[in-house]
Design brief:
The complex is a heterodimer of chains A (664) and B (354).
Chain A: E1 8-9, E2 11-14, H1 18-28, H2 31-38, E3 45-49, E4 65-66, H3 77-87, H4 94-113, E5 128-136, E6 141-147, H5 153-168, E7 171-174, E8 176-185, E9 203-212, E10 217-223, E11 226-228, H6 249-256, E12 261-262, E13 267-274, H7 284-287, E14 291-293, H8 301-304, H9 314-326, E15 344-347, H10 353-359, H11 361-371, E16 380-389, E17 393-394, E18 400-405, E19 408-417, E20 422-423, H12 435-464, H13 478-483, H14 485-510, H15 537-552, H16 558-578, H17 590-614, H18 632-635, E21 637-641, E22 647-651
Parallel strand pairs in A: 1-10, 2-3, 2-11, 3-7, 11-19, 17-20
Antiparallel strand pairs in A: 4-6, 5-6, 8-9, 9-10, 12-21, 13-16, 14-15, 15-16, 18-19, 21-22
Helix pairs in contact in A: 1-5, 1-12, 2-12, 3-4, 4-12, 6-17, 15-16, 15-17, 16-17
Chain B: E1 9-20, H1 44-51, E2 69-80, H2 86-96, E3 116-119, E4 122-125, H3 131-134, H4 143-150, E5 177-178, E6 197-205, E7 211-213, E8 216-217, H5 220-228, E9 242-243, E10 246-247, H6 256-260, H7 273-277, H8 279-282, H9 290-300, H10 308-315, H11 340-353
Parallel strand pairs in B: 1-6, 2-5
Antiparallel strand pairs in B: 1-2, 3-4, 3-6, 7-8, 9-10
Classes of the chains: A alpha/beta (664), B alpha+beta (354).
């Protein structure tokens, strides 16, 4: 890293997890990029991330990445395709799922060739294991399809992708928080600004505004190609397996830029999070003989799924646990005995102790470390934990973001998305294990390749009319300045808002009566005794998590959704708007970013609740107790929710397989 | 995380805090692309780094400067049940007592590597450290001083306590701020004599790294050192494509035995605990550091990598493996269970064997 951040880049990627890094590699490894580089016109690429890339949540993925490599038994990508569509309860866009399954082997092989330390078969090939919902011969028998690296596949993939980016000299702006996504509307097109219903196409990516958390400075970064890859939004819920940074930033950026979110009501809950920590206890704990029990000690799964019992599909088990809790048969987390009775027991005492240590080392370690219990003797409190957002920013199979309007997809020129924050339509109403890393890597790469093609086109156009845009290093011309004026304006506005927020903190500080003594330093005010400035984003995050969990975690109905919308509109939104940091120091002011994160989550929660309100059926991960059946007649449709409460519907793309019942 | 309120007992978290002064012109670059103040301008490593492709500005090394700012020690006393991690405590403090307290955290279960700090002087991760494991009774009125004594002894860089700093973090006249909340206990109260008080846990930023704010350390130098040594697989570099539904290339073959030689090394999460534990590195000597060397060992032992000789040559330098003094403090706290010291020794043997 040898120079300052520039004012414009040819492409900017937001987020440095599997999707963002795959996109970066998709660009720099492309034929087109290499040609441009050889011609001395290396496109300038910047990856902006709120975390150092190696801290990305991709690193937490444990199980595997699905691909029909057939290294251990015969497999076929058509079967993977079918399983993905069926697993998603037929809310899957089949054109996208087809690509996912067909290009999965290439994706996994290239990860291996990039350095991933996959576990191996005896003959040296990538090892594969069974995973829920992955079958041979269209549902006939389980198949070993998930390529794995012990129980650390995410860490391995994240590191290999980052390492390859280092090899390619990809430039990063680390611990920069993106506050604004800037689009404009092409002047000669429709004059609607697109913030309400003006989805007439012609909208273009112009850049981003990014806040450097190290210095507190706001940067305008102009770019004709922007890719959003910020991950999921598990922090909407109190109990989640997601890291503290999964606050749906990219999805909220899209909403605030006037775009929509697709299928946002579909959130996968993993049934066995370790009580309130949300940390996952692998499905293998039940696979090897663990049994779920209610407050009365009853092994209740046999009532809900007589055939598969504790090994039924994730959404089935999660719903059964919630039904027990709702019926008053839940238990409290022993760490918080007076707390809510919202857990059930996972009884692993029937598993042979030696076998448990050998087969489930991570599960055993997690239970010992984070619950202080001994799984061979104690029952362990578990509850469903928010795990994955199936929905997100709507994209085509080339990663292009679009708006759905008047029954058509309108591409936003130059705007791309990939990974969990996006929705290409492969997961439908419920994601299969092993398909999330695959989605992020495969469609991330495709989006990168699509950007590279655009960079090539731009270069060709510039070669034909060089006066249109200044060459790299020239003084920006008038047209050029005009093109990115909207980005500078947005940055100015943001900088002003930051200054105001910090000034409020400073004025509060002067009223504080701290008694710093010996050090000669004035300590930060811990809190003002005299002023009611006790609200803070961390408190609000906790309240939002509780609100969302009560309303829509695992199951919901009209009443619970309405209640959450009211709570957000009448209480949380105003409080979030009134939040001010308690320190006026701009550098590493984490509270400032947390204030933005709360705002993002609230924005997202509203869209999610509106989509939930409108979907009058139960499908996959989405269960309405007042509409318990799947309704293909009315809702074989993707919800498209905007920031203003509007929800429209887009038909599911059915190519090869007509909907069937989803039974396992 | 569940609320910690209503717990059966309490613990005091003592945090060594720091806030940088607002920048003045030319003090420090505003960008992550620009160079950070290097730790020791006299070090041959620092100057060499400037010329590396992943090093900082190619311009002459800037004189070493320490960021000015306020340093103080703050006590927070909170209710706990006993099963919490230290990270749980800090998050509770952020939510209920002091939202200004700054520390890195992300996954919360020991895989992201972002939350390495010194707990009672020992480098480790906030999210894996248990309250009961680290809380200890305060032994004297000069509590901060006595725990400071137990802290890792800094061996190098005597200029660390230079005039640029307002107060040294190791000072024993810490100002004990009372967090303005009902559950905060004034410092005057003798925690240790209270039957239900677990004691004190002292937190400071990771040793050997410049502090940026409170418990947030500047890891740019460590990352630059890791990157400097080409931390990526060097093989034929060819990638597979799909044609007619089939791929045209397969994975590199590697036996389970070959995998075993580097698998554990590939689990490194770049948290910096080994570096903060290393008296040579944390002492400010010119040393590329154990984290960068583990990243090299990972590829040297990977049967797919074709650049082992190159790599061994690159680390056989004064500030490379040669700077390792085999103290093996790096092995003790590795959150991934890597015997870092042993791996350093293996590298030394390999380098010398050539």
């Amino acid at each position: 890293m040898d120079s300052e951040c520039e004012e414009t880049y040819d492409a900017v990627i937001i987020g440095a997890g599997a999707a963002g890094l795959s996109a970066a590699l998709g660009i720099v490894r492309s034929e087109r990029f290499r040609q441009l580089k050889a011609q001395g016109h290396t496109p300038r690429l910047l990856v902006v991330s709120k975390l150092q890339p190696l801290r990305s949540h991709t690193g937490s993925a444990e199980g595997g990445i699905a691909a029909s490599l057939g290294n251990l038994e015969h497999d076929d990508w058509h079967w993977h395709y079918y399983d993905t569509v069926k697993g998603g309860d037929w809310l899957v866009d089949q054109d996208a799922a087809r690509i996912l399954a067909q290009y999965a082997p290439q994706t996994v092989v290239n990860l291996e060739r990039s350095g991933v330390a996959f576990s191996r078969t005896a003959d040296g090939h990538i090892a594969q294991r069974r995973f829920g919902g992955h079958t041979a011969d269209y549902g006939k028998a389980p198949v070993r399809r998930a390529a794995y690296a012990a129980d650390r596949i995410g860490h391995q993939i994240l590191y290999a992708l980052w390492q390859q980016c280092v090899a390619e000299g990809v430039r990063f702006a680390e611990e920069w928080y993106v506050t604004d996504l800037v689009l404009d509307t092409e002047p000669n097109a429709s004059q609607t600004d697109g913030t309400t219903d003006g989805t007439q196409g012609e909208r273009r990516a112009r850049g981003i505004v990014a806040f450097d958390t190290h210095t507190g400075k706001t940067h305008a970064i102009g770019a004709r190609n922007v890719l959003v890859a910020t991950g999921g939004a598990g922090r909407l819920f109190h109990t989640t397996s997601n890291s503290y940074d999964l606050t749906g930033d990219g999805m909220a950026l899209a909403l605030r830029a006037g775009l929509q979110l697709e299928d946002s009501e579909f959130v996968q809950f993993h049934p066995t999070g370790l009580a309130h920590t949300g940390i996952l206890l692998s499905e293998a704990s039940r696979g090897d003989g663990g049994v779920l029990r209610n407050a009365q000690g009853e092994a209740f799964m046999q009532r809900y799924a007589p055939e598969h019992k504790d090994l039924a599909a994730r959404d089935v088990v999660s719903r059964s646990i919630m039904a027990e809790v709702d019926a008053g048969r839940g238990v409290a987390d022993p760490k918080d005995p007076d707390g809510p009775k919202d857990c059930v027991w996972l009884d692993m005492t029937g598993i042979d102790k030696t076998h448990m240590e050998e087969a489930l080392p991570q599960v055993v370690e997690t239970i010992r470390d984070y619950a202080g219990l001994e799984p061979s003797e104690d029952w362990v409190p578990v509850k469903p934990t928010a795990h994955y957002t199936m929905g997100g920013i709507p994209i085509t199979t080339d990663g292009e973001v679009y708006q759905w309007s008047d029954g058509a997809r309108w591409i936003v020129d130059g705007l791309f998305a990939a990974g969990e924050c996006s929705c290409v339509g492969v997961h439908g109403a419920n994601r299969l294990g092993g398909n999330s890393l695959l989605d992020a890597c495969l469609f991330g790469t495709r989006a990168g390749e699509a950007i590279a093609r655009r960079l090539g086109e731009t270069a060709e156009m510039e070669a034909e009319s060089p006066q249109q845009t200044p060459q790299n290093g020239d003084e920006p011309g008038a047209d050029f300045a005009k093109e990115y004026a909207c980005v500078r304006q947005a940055a100015k506005k943001r900088a002003k808002s930051v200054t105001a927020l910090l000034a409020d903190a400073a004025s509060a500080e002067t009223t504080d009566t701290t008694t710093g003594t010996d050090t000669g330093a004035t300590p930060e005010p811990a809190a003002d005794a005299g002023q009611p400035r006790d609200d803070n984003p961390y408190q609000l995050l906790a309240e939002l998590g509780t609100t969302m969990e009560r309303a829509v975690a695992v199951r919901c109905d009209a009443t619970s959704i309405d209640k959450a919308i009211k709570e957000i509109e009448l209480n949380l939104t105003d409080r979030a708007a009134a939040l001010r940091p308690h320190s006026d120091s701009p550098a590493f002011n984490q509270e400032l970013t947390a204030i933005w994160e709360v705002g993002n989550l609230l924005q997202l929660a509203k869209a999610m609740l509106r989509a939930s309100q409108e979907r009058h059926e139960s499908r996959g991960s989405f269960a309405r107790t007042d509409f318990p059946e799947r309704d293909d007649g009315c809702f074989l449709l993707h919800s498209m929710a905007d920031a203003h409460g509007g929800v429209s519907w887009q038909p599911v793309r059915i190519v090869d397989m007509p909907p069937q019942a989803r039974g396992y | 995380m569940g609320d910690l309120g209503g717990g059966a007992t309490a613990v005091t978290i003592r945090v060594h805090r720091f806030t940088a002064r607002p920048e003045r012109a030319g003090r420090r670059s505003s960008s992550p692309f620009a160079s950070k103040a290097s730790r020791a301008s006299s070090s041959p490593f620092a100057s060499r780094r400037s010329s590396s492709p992943f090093g900082d500005s190619p311009s002459a090394p800037k004189p070493r400067r320490r960021t000015r700012g306020k340093r103080w020690t703050q006590d927070y006393t909170i209710a706990v049940h006993g099963g919490e991690t230290v990270l749980d405590c800090l998050l509770s403090i952020k939510r209920t007592l002091d939202p200004t307290l700054a520390f890195r955290y992300s996954c919360g279960h020991g895989i992201c590597g972002s939350d390495a700090v010194a707990i009672n002087g020992t480098p480790t991760l906030l999210c894996t450290a248990k309250v009961t494991q680290y809380a200890k009774p305060e032994r004297s009125a000069h509590g901060a001083a006595s725990s400071a004594d137990e802290r890792f002894r800094r061996t190098g860089s005597p200029s660390d306590g230079d005039a640029d700093t307002d107060t040294n973090i190791n000072t024993d006249n810490a100002s004990n701020e009372t967090a303005g909340d009902t559950s905060a206990t004034p410092q005057a109260a003798p925690h240790t004599n209270h039957p239900s008080h677990l004691g004190v846990i002292e937190l400071a930023p990771l040793p050997g790294f410049p502090v940026l704010r409170d418990l947030i350390a500047d890891i740019d130098q460590m990352m630059a050192q890791i990157k400097r040594l080409a931390p990526y697989l060097k093989a034929d570099g060819k990638l597979a494509r799909t044609a007619d539904g089939k791929i045209d290339m397969f994975e590199y073959l590697q036996s389970p035995e070959q995998l075993k030689r580097y698998e554990l090394l590939s689990n490194c999460i770049s948290c910096g605990v080994c570096e903060g534990s290393c008296p040579v590195y944390a002492g400010g000597e010119a040393f590329v550091g154990p984290a960068a060397l583990i990243a090299q060992a990972r590829f040297i032992n990977d049967s797919r990598d074709q650049a082992a000789d190159e790599r061994l040559k690159a680390i056989a330098t004064q500030d490379g493996i040669t700077a390792c003094q085999s103290v093996r403090a790096c092995s003790r706290q590795c959150p991934r269970g890597i015997d870092v010291g042993e791996e350093m020794w293996q590298l030394t043997t390999k380098v010398n064997g050539d």
